[in-house]
Amino acid sequence: MTQFKPQSFDVKGGPQVGRAHLPLLRDALAEAGLDGFVIPHEDEYNNEYLPDCNERLSWATGFTGSAGAAVVLTGKAAVFADGRYTVQVREQVDASIFEIQDLIETPPYDWVGKNAPKGAKIGYDPKLHSPDALDHFHRAARKAGAEMVAVETNPIDTAWQDRPAPPAAQVHPHPIEFAGEDHASKRSRVGEAIAEDGADAAAITAPPSLAWLFNLRGGDVARSPLALGAAILNADGTATLYMDPEKLTDEARSHLGNEVAIRPEAEFAAGLAELKGKAVSVDPAQSSAWVFDRLQAAGATVKRRRDPVALPKAIKNSTEIGGARKAHVRDGAALTRFLHWLDTEAQSGEVNEIEAAIKLAEFRGELTDLKDLSFDTISGFGKNGALPHYRVSEASNLKLARGSLYLVDSGGQYPDGTTDVTRTVPIGEPTAEMRRRFTLVLKGHIALSTARFPRGTSGGQLDTLARLPLWMNGLDYDHGTGHGVGSFLGVHEGPQRIAKAGSSEPLKPGMIVSNEPGYYKEQEYGIRIENLIVVTELAPAGDGDRAMMGFENLTLAPIHRGLIDLDILTREERAWVDAYHADVLAKLGPKLSGETAEWLNAACAPL
């Protein structure tokens, strides 16, 4: 069985954490001569998932969500979370010592503008904020008559006495058989793009960009094969990689070759200072204000540009797409074994959410090439399934009782691909309402999967297709419809996405995105159907004269027939379900046997 770090179901965070640590932080602020401090969730690498040593927001407040912020002043404090965490933040944060604010309706900088005392010095760690975010804070502080002050040492790091050590996992080459392009070629073509933009170099601080650019994989971040560090890529394709040398194996050093210098990450500041007089491309959405400050202090000309690696990384080559197809077959077989188990043994009403998540991990763990889960499994029954980003713990764990729905969102990390799939399964007999709303979600899923669109179309323009069946019935969901997915990298990857807003990036052939409409009835049940799909080129339709693009399904797992209301599916939609299930059966059938194979035959029978 594959060995990876098991999912933890311990109760993390909570009001007692904030109660214990807020006084320690205020003592550290007083020692530093500060009257307040801004605490974002992000760390200096701006990753979605943080190493334990960088969970500063959780340490200070007890809130463990993957997005949010806090502001601590001498006399008051506030925690900010978005709509995904409305319930969680109120359970984990002591409302008697922290105001609880909506991150969107009341951004932290607005709160500072209204609450900072006149003359107050409010600290911030420049490594943890984008320059644009800090502009908002500076304006808000000036409005209040206060001042934002950059700190060299984060006061949380001073107050956090038992802070975990930084991660130091070994870094290995990502073989060409999976990458499809050697790193010399990648560095050369990205360097050419930097030169064409009139820059001499680019500062790259996103760990996924480092992993892709240098064909390296590590283990510093949970569920993502990333190594923390930074790099400076020159326009001629040569580079300096700033990373703890002890993490780099001899194989990795040999792999990097003579065109990539290796320096300790602690020397990144010195490397930025050496760019005096050069034009340097830096991504303000990814790199921190600290990087911009260092370059400007060095006398470099800073060009605000998107990370030059982001788009090439998102457009998968033929090797990566072929690897994704293979990974989804193996992953789909493991998931199908779990779905069979859910449809048989788990129908007893005695299995709980944690046991189900462990069972799925066991099925995946029997795959010899599984490196890790791609994220902690969302295993939600009934009212917990109505929380789109639910994480089961010993405190929230429910039995899969008969008469409601179970939602499972999970994935695996394989050398040839990253998977992410959601299925919704009835435990016992579903109600007519559950079946109808599941089918409305399915109709939206099919509409997006079968879309044809011209070049230049963005995910934002396609988002409505997935929502329209729900909208026509007065329903909706409050998350994006699709996110980009990496190739043995992060399960969430930009710049492409499919969502109502903020998704203007044109879709291009080779991009992998999720297709995951849903519906959530608060305190009752949740529904989501998620496949990964890859953008492909199509021939002109009918007598059309314009080339079109569409999607190829990657994910292989049956969609539960018992939740489909045939009366509201069109003939074309029924045909899509039948064709999808025929594909699932053809590709997964040979990998399964016994009762599971028999179950799959029935699960994939034509509607």
Structure description:
Belongs to the peptidase M24B family. InterPro entries: Creatin/AminoP/Spt16_N, Creatinase/aminopeptidase-like, Creatinase_N, Pept_M24, Pept_M24B, Peptidase_M24_C, X-Pro_aminopeptidase_P. Residues 324-537 form the Peptidase M24 domain. One of its GO terms (molecular function) is aminopeptidase activity. By secondary structure, the protein is an alpha+beta fold. It has three domains: 15-159, Creatinase/prolidase N-terminal domain (Creatine Amidinohydrolase, Chain A, domain 1); 172-312, Creatinase/prolidase N-terminal domain (Creatine Amidinohydrolase, Chain A, domain 1, 3-Layer(aba) Sandwich), CATH 3.40.350; 315-563 and 593-603, Alpha-Beta Complex (Creatine Amidinohydrolase), CATH 3.90.230.10. The protein has 19 helices and 27 strands. The chain has a six-stranded mixed sheet, with helices on both faces. Strands 12-11-10-8-13-14 form a six-stranded mixed sheet, with helices on both faces. α4 (108-115) packs parallel to α5. The longest helix has 26 residues, at 318-343. The protein is globular, with a radius of gyration of 25 Å. The mean pLDDT is 96.
- The name of the CATH topology of the largest domain is Creatine Amidinohydrolase
Strand order across the largest sheet: 4-3-2-1-5-6
Please state the CA-atom Rg, rounded to the nearest Å: 25 Å
Q: Give the helix level as a range of percent.
A: 25-40%
Let me know the average pLDDT.
96
Total separate domains: 3
The helix count comes to 19
Low-confidence parts: none
- Globally, the shape reads globular
At the first level of CATH, the class of the largest domain is Alpha Beta
